[in-house]
Amino acid sequence: MIHSLFLINAAGDIFLEKHWKSVVSRSVCDYFFEAQERASEAENVPPVIPTPHHYLLSVYRHKIFFVAVIQSEVPPLFVIEFLHRVVDTFQDYFGVCSEVIIKDNVVVVYEVLEEMLDNGFPLATESNILKELIKPPTILRTVVNTITGSTNVGDQLPTGQLSVVPWRRTGVKYTNNEAYFDVIEEIDAIIDKSGSTITAEIQGVIDACVKLTGMPDLTLSFMNPRLLDDVSFHPCVRFKRWESERILSFIPPDGNFRLLSYHVSAQNLVAIPVYVKHNISFRDSSSLGRFEITVGPKQTMGKTVEGVMVTSQMPKSVLNMTLTPSQGTHVFDPVTKLLSWDVGKINPQKLPSLKGSVSLQAGTSKPDENPTINLQFKIQQLAISGLKVNRLDMYGEKYKPFKGIKYMTKAGKFQVRT
Amino acid sequence: MQTDNLELKKLVYLYLMNYAKSQPDMAIMAVNTFVKDCEDPNPLIRALAVRTMGCIRVDKITEYLCEPLRKCLKDEDPYVRKTAAVCVAKLHDINAQLVEDQGFLDTLKDLISDSNPMVVANAVAALSEIAESHPSSNLLDLNPQSINKLLTALNECTEWGQIFILDCLANYMPKDDREAQSICERVTPRLSHANSAVVLSAVKVLMKFMEMLSKDLDYYGTLLKKLAPPLVTLLSAEPELQYVALRNINLIVQKRPEILKHEMKVFFVKYNDPIYVKLEKLDIMIRLASQANIAQVLAELKEYATEVDVDFVRKAVRAIGRCAIKVEQSAERCVSTLLDLIQTKVNYVVQEAIVVIKDIFRKYPNKYESVIATLCENLDSLDEPEARAAMIWIVGEYAERIDNADELLESFLEGFHDESTQVQLQLLTAIVKLFLKKPTETQELVQQVLSLATQDSDNPDLRDRGYIYWRLLSTDPVAAKEVVLAEKPLISEETDLIEPTLLDELICHIGTLASVYHKPPGAFVEGGRGVVHKSLPPRTGSSESAESPDTAPAGVPAADQPSVIPTQGDLLGDLLNLDLGPPVSGPPVATSSVQMGAVDLLGGGLDSLMGDESEGLRSDVGGSPAMGGGSGGFAPAPGTAVPSNTGAPLGSGLGDLFDLTGGVGTLSGSYVAPKTVWLPAMKAKGLEISGTFSRQVGSISMDLVLTNKALQVMSDFAIQFNRNSFGLAPAAPLQVHAPLAPNQSVEISLPLNTVGSVMKMDPLNNLQVAVKNNIDVFYFSTLYPLHILFVEDGKMERQMFLATWKDIPNENETQFQIKDCSLNADSVSSKLQGSNIFTIAKRNVEGQDMLYQSLKLTNGIWVLAELRIQPSNPSFTLSLKCRAPEVSQYVYQAYETILKN
């Protein structure tokens, strides 16, 4: 099981360590530093590193490495999932997860970590249970605590811990009862030079914010549940009911949670909402190249594409770029060779474009690869897969809640090869 | 500590955990509070107390922990019970004996039937952890009832608990296919879990139990279909999770390619994937490549070959070559893609391309020679040895079609001494080939290279190969032609497949570190003792097909066996290896000189003579220690006091052979234990080693049988011992003359000496051995019988004996009983003498025979013995006196083995 945890910042300092079993010396991290040195970028540090006596499993988030030390055969996914959970919990507690915040709240951090694992076994990882055990710090509470001498630590056994619905505490009360669901879809796609789709898939999630009194029992049904053939559920969803009736039936956790995530990979179901016209050429003889890209809407079902952002990693031999955008702003960083163009909204009548010339390092041959273009965008009020919620019903409680569903489509890893 | 403020209490507890170790005496003062807190009305505090106590690793405190823990295990509150379950595992880690003595293990087992699923999950987790350090104990005794309980708990416990339960389920062996199916049905919903570790553990259970389902079953097909989506979903998670998932998918794809054969596209690389994800995806793409999707794959690979990251580009180019070799229909397209890439003139791309084109030539001879001209244009830009060697091989192989082959090779020859060995060897072979093809024009060239290789080079490989060619060419050019230009065996389709036995084991370990490293857990987990080999269940039901993992390797006809051919060596390589072994440094052993021939004779002769039986034996050596290795069947039954020339009754021809190889140890009569399996094939990528120790006229030897159970040829064997109590070390290198072909075994007698470095081992006669071959290095340890260390001059003078006996203090005397031995004093004495235990005097006291004996160990330790034999009583009493009393126990063991065999 998980032996120890080290938090390492970008500079390579261990700024926090926690041991759940016997103490493992810090020097074990030297192997990690070695691997870090070998990897060109922080993202490329391999997640599993063997050392003579231990194994180091790490995740890299918010510019911090979370390195878990294990000694025996433990499922690595279990460790990595747990590390991500730790990061999520920190984020949940402190709003952001950064070195400064962690150092400022070191007592709470230790208390939380102690509560999450016991002897390497996960103890309480649900954020609502944790928050009952250890209350998140707020300015008001700190003031009250200093005056009254009370503490951040709850002295009652969290009620949900052992019930059949560990994710929900009892006795929840709200004056405004509301349940909001966000259907968010991300398109991952690779588009080739000629504009045809190589792969495209949709990663969808339904995030919920449920603030309902008592023990409500919700059912959510879809217009087209057949779309969802590859899904993973929050533990609260009754799987049997889904299998037989294709209805989501659940007692929701209190507050924010991810109800479901799904995956649509059938190519014909994935519409590509934007296209990119590009003309990027470098010539062998001269040190100048041409650069021109235009972005336009494709299958958007009449909705506006907004928040468009184009980034592209230029080849090393590019010295500078002189470009004029028809709208938005653009930046080229000559050090990292990263071009980014903040486009904004796409107006179908007047397509945004970025034109100009590229100056190359003199004397070098033309780069043999053309840069890949990365695209970000957002479309409100649209789930690109066509998924639609039919109705949401509540049982088990008397009052009438506010209900709301929002749809949104975003670009995930959306790449256009040139 | 006695504060009511919970936060303060927690922090104090935290402090205690960290600092108790440094100040144990202070920590003990906290015990009272712990005990009191364990009775607190608030379950949170009870749990906290028992949890903290378990974390304080101070012996004195653990003693006080038992009572509160016992109470907490039976607490009314499930929260306390589940915490206590984990605490048992903690306590076991600190003091295993205590846990067993206090009966906590049984209580823990009872908790598996607890009404609360969380308690069940933690009990399972704790038991699994304890079982890991106790491989033999049958802690998790799974039966249909307990499985049912686990499956029920599975639905209700937390995600982490589900992982523990699923991992535990995977160790269960269902009794028939119906049971397997019903477990599968209940596990399938876990595939939709949001936690990827749960998903992968569920995949493991399904993959394992699927093995038992009949393929005709509808359910089998449904299950296959259900497995694909969750695996694909894993790939949209964070990169670290993706990496682990991809390593596992790599295994799954090899075992059951049908699951993901339509999902090729999800493995396409995104340019901002971390490099470790890219490389894994590429690997799986090639495994999934087939005629149906090859066009897409090639287009992708070509795209990757223009990326920035050098490692990735190289691997992509290699992948194109592997596609060509794997999918024959695509070869042409692959070659033209490679040519396009060569035109880019990017240095490392060109070099990789040439290396893979060489392999394509090997696979499809005389098909794509038209591209040679293009390759030759890039001759000058090659600066890596592997690419240069590949290019030279191509020039030599197709010398007759390249007009200026002699000029090209000559140009390489100029800097001969600066080249790496690989290139030098290749150049030598290529020029000889060229000479044999165009003898008239190249005489000068070949002489030049031969003299360079034989006279000006320090490298023995190169020199020897040069001499052999020289000899061949000067004595019999026709034979030389036959040897050098012989037809080459085709290279196999996929060279990097994991062996079936290992693959099956790894499938049982899906989701663990083993599956990330693609190595069995024994190969890397600390203290390999805790490793239990897992194997896939055999298929039951109607279709007992050839699909079953056991029969698959055996059923393949020899010709189809994919054998890995060393990329640059040619046929002579094998011959040359003969001379490569460094000279024997230790005392020459009679058997070693004839070994080579004798083994061949044995192999051939015996196979025909006792064909069926030896076949049976060989296929039996599946790792059971009872099976005395491949030779056990025809070596003379050891130790039955047979006269030295045992060969006679066995038939003339065979008998002689036995004296040379098999019949070790019968000459001096020293007892030789039957061979046992020391290193099972499962642990060593198919290499099985069984063996024993013997002592023969003053020299110790280790008699080994190496069996190759893998699919590839093994060569380059070497052996090394760790430091040990008596300084045992190999006196000569391990000589296996011919590479070991699949399913072949070889017997070797390795001479040992006792001049190695000494380190006391526990047990004293423990020997740790490392064996290396061309695949990997493997480790095992074995116990040697002490009597191989009894030297021949161990006979003490009578006076000396008496004096020494008195001199050694009485507390050094140890008594042992040797039971059930029916020999009389004389035969005992002669039998022991055979193993260098010398009887100095014999007395008869009150009807009892007293034998006074002495022996000496190789390191000069004398052991004196008094053996009392009563004619009516089959039990002997052995008293041993020695200045180093720790050896006594092992001497006694030696006595017992000698006398009882």
UniProtKB/TrEMBL annotation, chain A:
<dbReference type="GO" id="GO:0016192">
    <property type="term" value="P:vesicle-mediated transport"/>
</dbReference>
<dbReference type="GO" id="GO:0030131">
    <property type="term" value="C:clathrin adaptor complex"/>
</dbReference>
<dbReference type="InterPro" id="IPR036168">
    <property type="entry name" value="AP2_Mu_C_sf"/>
</dbReference>
<feature type="domain" description="MHD">
    <location>
        <begin position="176"/>
        <end position="417"/>
    </location>
</feature>
<dbReference type="InterPro" id="IPR018240">
    <property type="entry name" value="Clathrin_mu_CS"/>
</dbReference>
<dbReference type="GO" id="GO:0006886">
    <property type="term" value="P:intracellular protein transport"/>
</dbReference>
<dbReference type="InterPro" id="IPR022775">
    <property type="entry name" value="AP_mu_sigma_su"/>
</dbReference>
<keyword id="KW-0333">Golgi apparatus</keyword>
<dbReference type="GO" id="GO:0005794">
    <property type="term" value="C:Golgi apparatus"/>
</dbReference>
<keyword id="KW-0472">Membrane</keyword>
<dbReference type="InterPro" id="IPR050431">
    <property type="entry name" value="Adaptor_comp_med_subunit"/>
</dbReference>
<keyword id="KW-0813">Transport</keyword>
<dbReference type="InterPro" id="IPR011012">
    <property type="entry name" value="Longin-like_dom_sf"/>
</dbReference>
<comment type="similarity">
    <text>Belongs to the adaptor complexes medium subunit family.</text>
</comment>
<dbReference type="GO" id="GO:0030659">
    <property type="term" value="C:cytoplasmic vesicle membrane"/>
</dbReference>
<protein>
    <submittedName>
        <fullName>AP3M2 protein</fullName>
    </submittedName>
</protein>
<dbReference type="Pfam" id="PF01217">
    <property type="entry name" value="Clat_adaptor_s"/>
</dbReference>
<dbReference type="Pfam" id="PF00928">
    <property type="entry name" value="Adap_comp_sub"/>
</dbReference>
<dbReference type="InterPro" id="IPR028565">
    <property type="entry name" value="MHD"/>
</dbReference>
<keyword id="KW-0653">Protein transport</keyword>
<keyword id="KW-0968">Cytoplasmic vesicle</keyword>
<dbReference type="InterPro" id="IPR001392">
    <property type="entry name" value="Clathrin_mu"/>
</dbReference>
TrEMBL record, chain B:
<dbReference type="GO" id="GO:0030276">
    <property type="term" value="F:clathrin binding"/>
</dbReference>
<dbReference type="InterPro" id="IPR016342">
    <property type="entry name" value="AP_complex_bsu_1_2_4"/>
</dbReference>
<comment type="similarity">
    <text>Belongs to the adaptor complexes large subunit family.</text>
</comment>
<keyword id="KW-0472">Membrane</keyword>
<keyword id="KW-0813">Transport</keyword>
<dbReference type="InterPro" id="IPR015151">
    <property type="entry name" value="B-adaptin_app_sub_C"/>
</dbReference>
<dbReference type="InterPro" id="IPR002553">
    <property type="entry name" value="Clathrin/coatomer_adapt-like_N"/>
</dbReference>
<feature type="region of interest" description="Disordered">
    <location>
        <begin position="623"/>
        <end position="642"/>
    </location>
</feature>
<dbReference type="InterPro" id="IPR013041">
    <property type="entry name" value="Clathrin_app_Ig-like_sf"/>
</dbReference>
<dbReference type="GO" id="GO:0030131">
    <property type="term" value="C:clathrin adaptor complex"/>
</dbReference>
<dbReference type="GO" id="GO:0031410">
    <property type="term" value="C:cytoplasmic vesicle"/>
</dbReference>
<protein>
    <recommendedName>
        <fullName>AP complex subunit beta</fullName>
    </recommendedName>
</protein>
<feature type="domain" description="Beta-adaptin appendage C-terminal subdomain">
    <location>
        <begin position="790"/>
        <end position="900"/>
    </location>
</feature>
<dbReference type="InterPro" id="IPR009028">
    <property type="entry name" value="Coatomer/calthrin_app_sub_C"/>
</dbReference>
<dbReference type="InterPro" id="IPR016024">
    <property type="entry name" value="ARM-type_fold"/>
</dbReference>
<dbReference type="InterPro" id="IPR000225">
    <property type="entry name" value="Armadillo"/>
</dbReference>
<dbReference type="GO" id="GO:0012505">
    <property type="term" value="C:endomembrane system"/>
</dbReference>
<dbReference type="InterPro" id="IPR012295">
    <property type="entry name" value="TBP_dom_sf"/>
</dbReference>
<feature type="domain" description="Clathrin adaptor alpha/beta/gamma-adaptin appendage Ig-like subdomain">
    <location>
        <begin position="671"/>
        <end position="781"/>
    </location>
</feature>
<dbReference type="GO" id="GO:0016192">
    <property type="term" value="P:vesicle-mediated transport"/>
</dbReference>
<dbReference type="Pfam" id="PF09066">
    <property type="entry name" value="B2-adapt-app_C"/>
</dbReference>
<dbReference type="Pfam" id="PF01602">
    <property type="entry name" value="Adaptin_N"/>
</dbReference>
